[in-house]
Amino acid sequence: MGQTTLDDDDLFDEAASEMREDVEESLAKAREALPEGDAIWDVDADNTLGVLNGLRSALDPGEAQDHLTDAKKWYTMGDRADAFEDADDLAEEIETLEEVFADIEDAHEQVSDLASTVPELRGALDDAHEAADADDEGDAEADADADAEEAEAAD
């Protein structure tokens, strides 16, 4: 019976080691899949909407989120099974990446809001200027009519 327990312990240690490797590998893949800083900094577009759409695309975490989810899944399983001797480094790295993802998500939402607001704002500004131009034309016509009436009255 003692031999079976030893084998089970050895298997458990091996599984714990593999689990840690899986967590580390998933974290590495998550970091590698994050958007590059230049991708959100350098933008090639002809107008504001193009910039916002490019930025929104660059802020898509893509597969990085899936890799972080895998890391958290394996970490949680190993942590609950008390399989890790020292997993503080893994917990810290997961927390750090979660903060980065939260920042990316917040920025993505803000850019998405702006990308939908800017065209609406442009339309409202165009409408306001058209109305102002129409008022100016109406005022000019009224002034011209008043001048014509004054000229007729003077004759």
From TrEMBL:
Source organism of the structure: Halorientalis persicus
Basic and acidic residues bias: start-end ranges: 123-132
Annotated InterPro entries: DUF5790
Spans annotated as Disordered: 1-20, 120-155
Domain of life according to the entry: Archaea
Coiled-coil spans in chain: 80-110
Keywords carried by this UniProt record: Coiled coil
Name the record gives this protein: Uncharacterized protein
Bias (Acidic residues) ranges: 133-155
